[in-house]
Design a protein that fits this description.
It is a single chain. The chain is globular, with a radius of gyration of 20 Å. It is of the alpha+beta class and 307 residues long. It has a twelve-stranded mixed beta sheet with strand order 1-2-3-4-5-12-6-11-10-9-8-7, sandwiched between helices. β8 and β9 form a beta hairpin. It has eight helices and twelve strands. It has two domains: 6-112, Aminopeptidase (3-Layer(aba) Sandwich), CATH 3.40.630; 142-294, 3-Layer(aba) Sandwich (Aminopeptidase), CATH 3.40.630.30. GO terms for molecular function: acyltransferase activity, transferring groups other than amino-acyl groups.
Amino acid sequence: MAANPHVVRTACPDDAEAVVALRAVVHPYLVRGVESTRQMISEPAPGEHWTAFVAEVDRTVVGWVSVYRHGRTSVTGFGDVSMLHVHPEHRGRGIGGSLFDAALGHLRPLGVRQLRAFVSTDSLPYAEKRGFHPSRPVRYSVLDLRTAPRTPATAPAGARLLPLTELEPRRLHAAHVAASADEPDDVPADALGYENWRYEVWDNLGLDRTASTAVEVDGELVAFSLVKRDGDRMWSDMTATLPAYRGRGLAHLAKLAALHRAHRAGVTRAYTSNDEANAPMLAVNARLGYRPVAKLWSCLRDLPATG
């Protein structure tokens, strides 16, 4: 018997619950709750021309992709086809190809000339058939928090730990920009404006401002660890230190404090990801007890201009 046909359409806010359920099957190590997903669909990031598509079979969401022009970099014409995934029971029927074609149709008029997609090792042959080539491996890791992390060591002299509830957002944005400028990536993260940062970080419904922790040294904000939460799961969105203060254990201190606070608030599993070239953060995570659960590849493809 032939499989029922699929339909690809633009995602709407009411798809949020089905999209989160699909993500839990395909990528259980990714953390974004229903309300945060609904917010992302209904109020996309400014200036990135973000949109998403879902694939349905018998009115059930079985596939998803989001796509946008990258807004964190000064590199022009760079776009992301983000986390295209299809339910395992519906693969091999052209659904992934239909979603990808919809994504390309959205990006071409925007002047995007290079695409990036993140795919699993098993999916690399499929990506290569679509014109992508592997660029960088990214490690996804988990920490079981059912055994509470120890209370962080006393902060060094002149330093103090504080939750985001005690911070003015522009201070955190400035630290975020300075700390991420040399983060390993396919393109430099050198153009994260305040409006986009506020959308992606500060106003994100998943951000736990009580668990998220910053480090001040002599009154300067020098390190931080951000927590985005979905029930008893959390995502370490970014942990970083200003270049001039690295090598002092401040990223470890901030992340340990954030994990401890999140655990006290009911989080049992903590997830994160790191570029495999980011040896310092991989070392911090190993010291904290994280273990690898998946590896994805960033893959790149040129998108020729059409006449």
